[in-house]
Amino acid sequence: MVSGADPYGLIDGAALVLVGGKIAWVGAKADLPGEYAAMPVQNMSGRLITPALIDCHTHTVHGGNRAAEFEMRLHGASYEEVARAGGGIVSTVTATRRASEDELVAAAMPFVDAMIAEGVAVIEIKSGYGLEQNTELRMLRAARRIGRLRPVLVRTSFLAAHAVPVEYMGRADAYIDQVCIPALHAAHAERLVDAVDGFCEGIAFSPAQIERVFQAARSLGLPVKLHAEQLSNLGGAALAARYGAMSADHLEYLDEAGVVAMAAAGTVAVILPGAFYTLREQRMPPIHLLRQHAVPMAVATDMNPGSSPMVSLLLAMNMACTLFRMTPVEALAGATTHAARALGLADRGTLAVGQIADLAVWNCGHPAELAYRIGFNPLHQRIIGGVL
Questions:
Q1: How far is CA 222 from the centre of its chain?
Q2: Are 122 and 153 in contact (CB under 8 A)?
Q3: What whole-number distance in Å separates Cα of residue 360 and Cα of residue 349?
Q4: Handedness of CA 2, 276, 214, 186 (dihedral sign)
């Protein structure tokens, strides 16, 4: 079990006591308090138990796919070239606007089920493929429905500041004022929003435009996060840190000033190797600087139809190690403890007294196996809220 004092917190011969859907006690079985001795026992036969996994950055709800753009990139087109040619995020917008809520839910379900099958208990799902109020709200309603249809906690992020739609091309400021912020107020009124996100990049929105969105979020009492420094360094991570962002995500072009700002603010760095891999990027996030300044690093799939069409969080953990030289210890913490923090969830992500009893039981002998194997799922079972 992962909870003790070694680098992984591994406890051999461990016991967990679950009461009322929470962890009531954890430690070596030999030290089990007498008050729990008569409780029913579920023997896991020496299997590894960790907190259930948390995918803290996904775009799971969307219409269509972008397999054609995958081919374009293989023929040499860059992410920016695809976007400027009318592809990229905007191409998914067309398909998403055409889809009903039922269709969005149905399209997302196979991805959600694949995540659950790998031990995921929490999925963050963003809007951002509507870029007009009705579709943004429809995406968020679909995400909320998924959380009711499956035994998984869904956290929603409002991401209308994702791209400038065709009808507002060249008028990004007007889009922020006339669409993004009013849609945020409408989504908040329906209680569809857990956090507010944005894409701070040359092909999306400037820091000044993102700041207006953050100010609107602050006025509503909503936490913020940001896609930052993925393709260039516009200072998005430092901006996010100034607003106490829960996370800044991607971060390939992050500099030390941005790292220092994130460390001071307690902002989590969300590492997304799927997009790096799919886009065949060369610039890696500064893992050494994040370590040096003790910035917590989460790992997520960035599941989306364009730059990271990946649903496997276990694969993301492997990629974080193989591509970015994160350690398996960091990858596991990144998909549990720090992923929970990136979503503002203080009651999940660790095996500790008082935590929600969301657990993953693995056919593994050691935690490093979770990041080590490629294309293999060692999950034995999930335990959600203390229920096997």
A1: 17
A2: yes
A3: 11
A4: negative
pTM above threshold 0.85? yes
Whole-angstrom distance, CA of residue 183 vs CA of residue 261 = 30
Sheet holding 48-51, edge to edge: 48-51, 359-362, 379-383
Tell me: the pLDDT tens digits for 212-266?
999 999 999 999 999 999 999 999 999 999 999 999 999 999 999 999 999 999 9
How far apart (Å, rounded) are the C-alpha atoms in residues 274 and 311?
9
Rounded CA-CA distance 200/249 in Å is 10
d(CA 210, CA 220): 16
**Nearest alpha carbon to residue 116 among 350, 358, 347:** 358
Residue 91 is given by DSSP the state H
Dihedrals φ, ψ of 346, to 5°? -85, -10
Residues 6+ apart with CB under 8 A from 333: 296, 297
Residue type, 106: A
Q: Alpha-carbon distance 236 to 250, whole Å?
A: 11
Query: Per-residue pLDDT tens for 264-277?
Result: 999 999 999 999 99
Neighbours of 377 (CB within 10 A): 14
Rg (C-alpha) for the chain, rounded Å, is 21
φ/ψ of residue 239, rounded to 5: -60, -45
Cα atoms found within 13 Å of the Cα of residue 248, Cβ hemisphere only: 36
Bridge partners of 306, per DSSP, are: none
Find, among 228, 184, 230, 180, the residue nearest to 207 by Cα.
Answer: 228
In angstroms, rounded to a whole number, what is the distance separating the alpha carbons of residues 304 and 275? 9
Using an 8 Å Cβ cutoff, are 126 and 59 in contact? Answer: yes
Q: Provide the token pair at 132.
A: 């007009």
